[in-house]
Amino acid sequence: MACSLHVAWDDGLTAYDFGPEHPLNPVRVELTMALARGLGVLDAPGVAFTPVEPASDELLKLIHEPAYIEAVKRAGRTLEPDEAHYLGTPDNPVFANMHDAAALVSGASVAAARAVWSGATPHAVNIAGGLHHAMPGHAWGFCVYNDASLAIAWLLEQGAKRVAYVDVDVHHGDGVQAMFYDDPRVMTISLHESPLTLFPGTGRPAETGGPGAEGYSVNVALPAGTDDARWLRAFDAIVPPLLREFQPEVLVTQHGADAHALDPLAHLMLSLDGQRRVYSELHRLAQETAGGRWVLLGGGGYELVQVVPRAWTHLLAEACGAGLDPESATPDEWRRFVRERTDDVPPLYMTDGRTAEFTPFEAGFDPADPVDQAIQATRRAVFPSQGIDPSL
C-alpha cells in the first residue's frame, strides 16, 4: 500500500564533510539518493520533496548553548581548533563553513518534523540527518549540531506532549538521551553495541531517566557479534510494548546503518535483510502507536558503498510503500556512478541473501545467552516504571 512520504532534500546537505579521510563521508548520502532514484523509489506515488532552509540561531538555541553556536561559526571561518568545544579533534575536524553545513542538516530534520506535524504528510525523512551524538555545548562523535534533538524540541515547542525516539544506530544515542533525560514527554529508546566495546561508552540499562522521568530513557546494550536473529529478538522484546504503552503523537527514528556486519567501526553482525526487517517493524509501529506520524533520519554507517546506499534505499522504499524486492538488481547506471565516485566495486543486488527470522523472547528466556541477559536487564530496568510486567 502506497504511503505519502516527504523527502527533505537540498544538494547542499552533502557539504557536511569532514574531509576525504574521515569515516563520515557524504558520498554515502549521494550514492543513496542516486540508487533510490535509479530504482524509481523517489518517483513512487506519494513521494514529494520538501524545501530545506538552514536552522536559524534561535532555532538551534532550543538545544544548543549560544556560546557553542558562536564557536562553530568561528571555527568554520578561521579553521582553528577549539578544544573547549571539541572542534578540531580527529573525530570532529574543523572545515570551512562548518556552521552553515551543520545548520542545513538540522534545518532539514526540522523540515521533516514540520511536514509531519502540520499534517502535510504522515511520513517525512532527512536521510542526511541523525547526528545523534552532539551535546548542548560541544561537538561529539562526528556530530556538530544534534538535528535529531532539534526536531524533537521543535515538536515539543509546537505542543506535542509525547514524542518517542527509537535509535537503531550501532552507537548509543547519547546526545538525544542527554537532552531529554529529565523530560517525560520524550521516550528515547536506543539499541546499540555494548558500551564495554564501543564508543561512546554510555547506554547502560541503568540509565533510565532523571527525576520525574524514570523509565523514559531506555537502553538495550547488545554484545559484540549479535546477529539478525538475536538483534530482532531484542527489538521485539523491548520496543513494541513500550511504544504501545507510551502512545506517542510522533515517532522519530534514527537509522544508522553501522550495525551491519561489514561496518568497519563496530562489531555487530546484522545483514541488509535484517536491517530491512527493522524498517518494516518501525513502519508498522508508527502506524499502530503514533497514528502513522513518522519522522525518519539517517545516522551512522561507514561501509559507504556496500551497505549504506542499499540500506537507506530500502528505508525510503519502506516509508513510501514502494515495496522494493530484495532480489532486485542494482541499476547499471548506478554501478557506473559508484565506480566513478569511489573506485569501489558496487553491489549487484539489494539483498545479502538472509532470511532475517527470529524467535520471540516470550518463547523462552535463556539465562546463559548474553543477548537474553541484555534484554532482561533492560526490561527489569524500565518496564515497571511504565506499568509493564518485565517477566515472561
From TrEMBL:
Signal peptide per UniProt: none
Source domain of life: Bacteria
Residue ranges annotated for the Histone deacetylase domain, each copy included: 22-317
InterPro entries, sorted: AcuC (IPR003085), HDACs (IPR000286), His_deacetylse_dom (IPR023801), His_deacetylse_dom_sf (IPR037138), Ureohydrolase_dom_sf (IPR023696)
Gene3D superfamilies: Histone deacetylase domain
Pathway: Ketone degradation; acetoin degradation
Molecular-function annotations in GO: histone deacetylase activity
Pfam families assigned: Hist_deacetyl (PF00850)
UniProt keyword list: Acetoin catabolism
Claim: Zinc is one of the keywords in the record: no
GO biological process, one term: epigenetic regulation of gene expression
Family designation: Belongs to the histone deacetylase family.
Protein name from the UniProt record: Acetoin utilization protein AcuC
Species, as recorded: Nocardiopsis composta
Organism ancestry: Bacteria, Bacillati, Actinomycetota, Actinomycetes, Streptosporangiales
